[in-house]
Amino acid sequence: MTALLELDGVDYRYRRGADLALKDISLQVQPGRSLGIVGESGSGKSTILSLLLGLTAPTAGVVRVQGTALNRRDRPQLRALRRLVQPVFQDPYSSLDPRQRVDRIIGEPLRSLRIEPSAGRREEAVRGALADVGLDVAALHRYPHQFSGGQRQRIAIARALVSSPRVLVADEPVSALDVSTRIEVIELLDNLARTRDMTIVMVSHDFSAVAALCAEIVVLRDGAVVEAGPTLEVIAAPREDYTRRLVEAIPRVRR
Amino acid sequence: MPEESRAPEPLLTVEGLTVSTTAGTALVRDVSFTVEAGTHLGVIGESGSGKSLTATAIVGLLGRGLKSSGSIRLAGHQVIGASDRQLVPLRGRYAAIVFQDPSRSLDPLSRIGPQVSEPLRRFQHVTGKALRDAVFSALDEVVLTDVERIVRSYPHELSGGQRQRIAIALALACRPKLLIADEPTTALDVTVQAEVIELLRKLSDERGMALIFVSHDVGVVSRVADSALVMQRGVVVERGPISQIISAPTDPYTRGLVHGVQRLEAALSTGRLT
After folding, report:
1. Whole-prediction pTM value?
2. Superfamily of chain region B12-265
């Protein structure tokens, strides 16, 4: 099966950076096999997401979108990538424009990607996305500050859904949330992935969230892949020392 | 008549603590608890529970626009209503606080060496070579390696974990009887978090120092505390030994919280939030 997204031998160096931020990364996002990327700060997790979103180009190696090498100068291809892949950012307090009403925020991808020229159908899609994340239509005419953290994360997810992407790329989507809200958002994402046939690529330091959402896991350290495989197998029996340390450090409840 | 032995006063007695905005909104309501010398109390709560305000009130460091009422007796001294001049000698000697963001304890414009030596000079009255030795041993104690380089560094040149260890070293410099740790590991990577928790346990055991550990994370609290309070929207909804709070919570909110944590943990082996 052709991977939805693929990194093939990718290096990445920040402008004026001395060291490689990513070293020879290869990974594939297969349809229906959600992928969790775990690692500590500075491991390069978020840089991988930027590459998958086409926001930045690798220093070496290839990013492939449905089998075709991504060329960021190819505007139609970049637009196709934007339709295929949508981001959900970490902090629902800062990722939503506070001056825009929720209907504008959620509908933004439809306008900027010129997906839906008809205002009526745009509104329909916005209402559909809002219903899918479990928010009432009354939310459409309000502003982000009028919502709780969990509700804002739902709005951010609705915005990502509205263009019907195949892949949702999420940077720590639940780490800023309280336990009960975290569970709700994980359940929501799980449910959406099934019903909308979406694959999730998620960066997180939270193994529980990754285990609940992602069949596959990649463990990163200092810009390199330490270990990769089916999530539950990697957590139950890590092959690498570093992975074992990460798994042992999960603050489980002491009984 | 049997001889009556009066129990000594606990290290910390909080009675009817209420923290309000000057506009009159109560953010913490009627909170009472005691901390005996050498014991470890967890304060569990999610955002908006008032857990951090409770912790900060103990050392009289509530921000402008907040006022506390009730009673906080720390080693026999009343904290509520006390002036800063009365509080300064209590802070450090009896109680010290470590925040989630270690930058709150560190001066960004000054090197680590002088920052650590300041409280040591003031409280342990050491100077010269002895002071230098004291700085090194204070940093050694929080398991910092490469101390030679660290004393010459500015806070921004260090990692989050290193900064938090230094904040702990600063808090411990005056040998407090009580260390208040307000979400001290929330901003840290998991492996560093585990190390810092281990460090706090070890230091408090070795010194017989009491610990108040504030966190939203039941798992983290269960690794540090003997007993705990659970706070929700400014009030204590449950209290008891931590094992009991986890195995047999009685309050519905606590039950939901513990159940949620258990569901997240179960996902680690089942891949589902059962």
Report:
1. 0.87
2. P-loop containing nucleotide triphosphate hydrolases (3.40.50.300)
